[in-house]
Every structure is written in structure tokens, then in C-alpha cells.
Amino acid sequence: MAASTDSLLQLARSRAPADRGHLLLALVELCDTSQSGRVMNAPPVQALLSSIFMSVVVEAERDIRKRLAEKLASAAWAPAALVNVLALDDIEIAAPIIAASPVLKDQDLVRLLLEATLDHQIEVARRPRLGPPVVAAILQQAEPAVLTALAANTATHLTPADMVKLVEASRRIASLRSPLVRHPELTTDLAQQLYVWIGQSLRQSLASRFRLDTAALDAVLADAVREAHGGIVNEASSAVVWTREDEREDMERRLVAKLQSAGQLRPGYLLRALRERKLSLFVTALAALGRFEADDVRRAIDSKQPELLGLACAAVAIDRSVFPTILDLVRRLNGGHPDGGDEGARRAIGAFGSFSPAVAGAAFRQAIRTV
């Protein structure tokens, strides 16, 4: 135990990213070996754990966050704030948390359905044993891919009313039909309704399972085909086109707001965002840290004046020595902007003078008006 304590203390003193990552994983192992769930879930302990984990995870590298999510996926002691932040991370990181974390409650899952990307919503619909509020939210949103994931989730109980809604939706969403044909809670009445909308191979499977009167159903199908040729509007023309980019940026704004409200949004997060090639996340986080308008930050990085970005970074206490790396990463992700070459970079360094961050912020707000 003494050796373990010394090792943790050495990792805690280190500022190297790799050591911070090892510290996170070592703390998880330590918490997992605790013999008292009651102690781990006590409010003071939870508050301490949340503070420790959140302060380190904000600047953790992607692979560390992924390993952390995998380790915490089944941990009942994991701090709720940390679990909810990981659930809003990239889907490769969030997936194990969404799939299994006992810390995520119905209200958390509903919030993900409302706030997260389509990939996150699909993972929610795949989670076993979803509660009625989560199922109701999925059915209300009626997003085809999420409905299909729910229909294939046989580990979640669906009421007769839920099944009616899914079968009705399958008339316009072809991907729903195959999982519904095999669903254990499909009834004979719903099978007869579904029969008319599915292909021949699925009809045979459905008829065999429920001993349907195929002759009568085929007659109904023939009528439906004649009606379709009579001028029924193609429903595919009204399909919703999802703007995945806008969706992702909305989730990034919510993630930054969550970190800021927890007091864990720090300048180091900006560098992490750029290293992970997330320019929009960098813009959102920089705007939040400096209390700038996000549009002003975008105008600064699209301009020919890198000194504007320098002022914004100085205003949030980015170290002068780190700024050249930030400028280089922004230019790589933004088509060479803010341009100005080496001379522009030298001008930008001048933004890191002897004045305070507050003065730099005021100078940025004043200067951006002229762009």
C-alpha cells in the first residue's frame, strides 16, 4: 500500500500528459478495489472523486479517455458528472458508457437523445433494459435509425402501444421491418399489418411464425399496389435530411457548457481540441473561456491578422510559449488562416505583452470590430 501511495503521489506531481493519464487509470484501479460501496457512494467521497477525475480528464489524451470510459462502464461508484461528460465525448469513447454505465439514469439517457449526435442516440436505443421514459422519447423523436436500433433491442421491454407505433412507422421506414418480424413481442394482429409492407422472404418467415392466411393478405397487398400506382405520393420525397455537422456542433456547445458549469473548462482544453482536429470545439471553448461571441472568434481565425487570435488566447491566460503551437494547428485545420505567414506569427506574439488577460480581452473585443 505504501509503494502504491508513493507511486500515485509521483504521478500526481507530474505534469506530463502520459503521467496524468496513468494517474487516472491508477485511481480507477484503486477505487475498484475498495471494499465498501457505501463509502464510495457517500456524498463527500463522490464530491472529492468528481473533483479529482474531472480536473485531470479535461486535458487527457483521447486514448486515455477511451480506456477510462471502458474501465468506468460498469463502475457503480463512478462520479455522475464524469460519466455524463464521457457520454458526450466522441462516440468511440462514449459507446461503452452509454451501453452499460449504471450511473446513467433515465433522465440522463433522455438528455442524450435530445442533445447528442445521431450516433449517440443509436447507442442509447441499443442499451439493454431501457426505462419507459427513454422508450417514449425515442418513439416521440421518430428518427429512423434510432427507431431501428430500438426495434432490434430485444433486451428492452416494449408495451403493446410501443409495438403499434413501431409497426406503423415501418410503413415508411424499411429498416424497421426485419427486426420487427423477429421481435418477440410482435402480435398476430400487428403481424398481419406488417405483412403488407415487407418483402417476400420476410413474408414467408412471418406467415410461418403466426400461421397467417397468406391468400387474404396477398389480396390486400395487390390492392395496395394498385393504389400506389394510382398516384400515391412517394413518401421518400419527404425524408428528413440530417445536418450532421450542425448536430455535432450543438453537442460540442453543450459539452463545453457542462465543463464550464463544473469549473473544469481550462486553457489546456483548447490545445487538446486542436490536437484532436476539432476546430469548432476549439472555437466554442475559446469563446466560453474568454466570454467572447463565437462568431467573433471565427472571424479572428478566418482573418489575415493572427494577432487577433493572439489577443484572444492571451485573454484566457494561454502561455506565450504555447501560442505558436496553437497558431500552427489552427492554420492546418483552417486552410492556412489566419494567414500572414511568419511575419504575422511574429506580430501575434506581440499580443502577449505585460498587460493583464482582462486588458487583452478588451483589446480583442475592440479590434475584432474592425475586421
Question: What is the gist of this entry?
Answer:
The protein has about 375 residues and is mainly alpha-helical. Helix content is about 70%, strand content about 0%.
Uncertain regions: pLDDT < 50 for 5+ in a row?
231-243
What would the principal axes of the Cα set say about the shape?
Answer: elongated
Question: How does the helix and strand content classify structurally?
Answer: mainly alpha
Report the end-to-end length measured between terminal Cα atoms: 60 Å
- Helix and strand string, N-terminal first? HHHHHHHHHHHHHHHHHHHHHHHH
- Average pLDDT works out at 85
* Number of E-state strands: 0
Detailed description of the structure:
Residues 231-243 have low confidence and may be disordered. This protein has helices at 2-13, 17-32, 37-40, 43-57, 62-72, 80-87, 91-100, 106-115, 118-126, 132-141, 144-151, 160-169, 177-181, 188-195, 200-210, 214-229, 244-261, 268-275, 279-290, 294-301, 306-315, 323-333, 341-349, 357-368. The protein is an all-alpha fold. α19 packs across α20 (294-301) and α21 runs parallel beside α23. The protein contains 24 helices and no strands. It has a domain at 262-368.
